[in-house]
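Email to the structure team, subject: Transposase model.

Hi all, the expression group asked for a predicted structure before they design truncation constructs. Nothing fancy, just the tokens so they can compare against earlier work. One-line instruction: predict Transposase, return tokens.
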Amino acid sequence: MVFDKKYSDEVRRLAVERVRQRRLEEPENRSIVREVAEEFEVGPQSLRKWLTRYDDGSYDYDPVPGSVAPAVFADGHGDGWEPRAATVGRQERRTTGQRELHARIEELEHRIAVLQEDNRSLTRVVSLLADQLRVATTNGVQIPDSTVRHAPRA
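Reply from the structure team: attached below.
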């Protein structure tokens, strides 16, 4: 069974656009998402998810010309609202971010591989030392305990 989208891309685009417009017009209104969800007959949680995906750049969305789009600040978050002309290259930012994530993943995978190899090496060393200790104690050699003080020899 193939998953069918419950809402069309057009409904998603219009609902996100409406929330963004109302946020500009009514910045003090905290029930905009709920009201717009009722207006478009979509779930409020779905609308919140679309807004979040739009704000972080993971949702391919081209607003209606002349409408509003988020301002992306130096930290990469879409915290503010500015006209569409102020946000150039959102797709480039997203692919750059994805490239950085992939590079970081590769770096961490390499680091994990190195640490796993170090762990295997240390396990071998501990095993060898344990074998030597076992041989020494079975041959009657007493290994001094570093916590016990021995009397000085005269």
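The radius of gyration is 31 Å. Confidence is low (pLDDT under 50) at residues 68-88. Ping us if the truncation boundaries need rechecking.
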